[in-house]
Design brief:
405 residues; mainly alpha; Growth Hormone, Chain: A; 2 domains; 18 helices; globular
Length: 405
């Protein structure tokens, strides 16, 4: 029963990643077909981000009302409908309308699934599940590229991914009873943690949701939000601007820079897979600390003015590998740091902080680089690393839990 549900969750994480690269990979063709400027992609992504933030903040109330299984199925179904709507759109304003349910569905399922895994499964699964998100995010550009090269157009790619999401929705709907049975079985079998018996107890479905203001007053919550925001700002900046930095400042040919930009994502995915094997041995804190230090080392490698570009290129891969365990470890440590009954509310807020950082950081860096030059890229990453590391270490002193969590 546990294994079957876990398999469903793994597939759901692939589903989470599938749509994430579609706008970026298809936009060079989409904006021409729709007759809008290239910059209008930012409007779509901002609408999606706002919807995601809103649904993340509401995730606890919705999940308590309907349960994780139902929220996951309905959210994936909502995303599927939005993707099919994208495929039928021939005007830019139609994309804007469909971006609303797209964002709402993505945020709700992200927060609900992450909290469920943090509560019920080991740290290795959190890392491997986020690695499977990377698999989905890596597959969708290939689907888009194949559809365009085959003459079927970008709309076909959205339709295919939308139909895949619809099929997954049916599977999730059929599996809703599993979530309740696993919850009940784990509740009966759970041994209450010695360090905080009240907080370790399972949270009842009919309890009152934790208000946002109350959640923010819990010691350490603001620190983890700042940590998460800084890390996701760093990750999104590296995704968007790394290739441009290599071309503008390091003299790397565009084709090679694009390849190493892709290696950042592959390093992120492979790193999470590898981190799963050591996650329980090292603990979440060590993974966060070690990952941030590795990113700092990668940023230094990017900045070194050496006669060879090999070190800088390798530095970008190191940044990807260092980034790998941080997101899963922050999520997985939330129930231990702040209590099981608070975890859904706090993870929802963390998702909102993550999307805020990842949405705002790339345009902020773009503005800064127009004033200073692209050379500031490694320094920008380093500042975000230091901010995340300082906040994370302060959190470790505020939250009185064992070092290995």
């Amino acid at each position: 029963m546990y294994s079957l549900l876990l398999a469903i969750i793994y597939v759901a994480f692939v589903s989470l990643g599938l749509p994430d690269s579609l706008v970026g990979s298809g936009w060079p063709v989409m904006h021409q077909d729709l007759g809008v400027p290239v910059a209008f992609a930012g409007i779509i992504t901002m609408i999606i981000a706002v919807g995601t933030i809103v649904s993340s903040l509401a995730s606890e109330r919705v999940t308590l009302r309907f349960g994780t299984g139902a929220v996951t199925a309905i959210s994936v179904g909502t995303t599927a409908a939005a993707l099919v709507g994208f495929s039928l759109s021939d005007q830019f304003w139609m994309l804007c309308l469909w971006a609303i349910p797209y964002g709402l569905g993505a945020g709700a399922v992200d927060a609900a699934l992450n909290n469920y895994v943090a509560l019920h499964y080991a740290a290795r699964h959190m890392n491997w599940l986020h690695s499977f998100w990377g698999v989905g995010a890596s597959l969708s550009p290939f689907v888009m590229g194949f559809a365009i090269s085959a003459g079927q157009g970008w709309s076909t790619a959205y339709l295919v991914i939308g139909l895949v999401q619809a099929a997954l929705t049916l599977a999730l709907l059929a599996g809703i009873p599993l979530w309740g049975r696993v919850d009940s079985a784990r509740t009966r079998a759970r041994t209450v943690d010695a360090h905080d018996p009240g907080e370790a107890a399972p949270a009842p479905r009919d309890r009152t949701p934790v208000p946002l203001a109350s959640a923010l007053r819990i010691p350490g919550v603001v620190l983890i939000l700042l940590t998460f925001c800084a890390y996701c700002a760093l990750e999104s900046t590296a995704l968007v601007w790394s290739s441009s930095y290599l071309v503008a400042e390091r003299g790397v040919l565009p084709a090679a820079a694009a390849t190493f930009g892709a290696l950042f994502v592959l390093g992120l995915t492979a790193g999470r897979f590898l981190a799963g094997f050591v996650a329980e041995r090292l603990g979440d804190r060590a993974l966060i600390r070690g990952g941030l230090l590795m990113i700092g080392m990668g940023a230094l490698m990017l900045a070194l003015p050496l006669p060879t570009e090999a070190v800088g290129l390798a530095g970008l891969v190191v940044v990807g590998l260092g980034s790998a365990p941080i997101y899963p470890a922050i999520i997985h440590s939330t129930p231990v740091n702040f209590g099981r009954r608070n975890s859904q509310a706090i993870i929802g807020i963390q998702m909102a902080a993550a999307y805020t950082g990842s949405t705002l950081a790339p345009p902020v860096f773009g503005l800064l680089s127009t004033w200073t030059g692209m050379w500031i890229f490694p320094l920008f990453l380093a500042v975000l690393v230091v901010a995340a590391l300082v906040m994370s270490e302060r959190l470790n002193r505020v939250v009185a839990v064992p070092a290995r969590v």
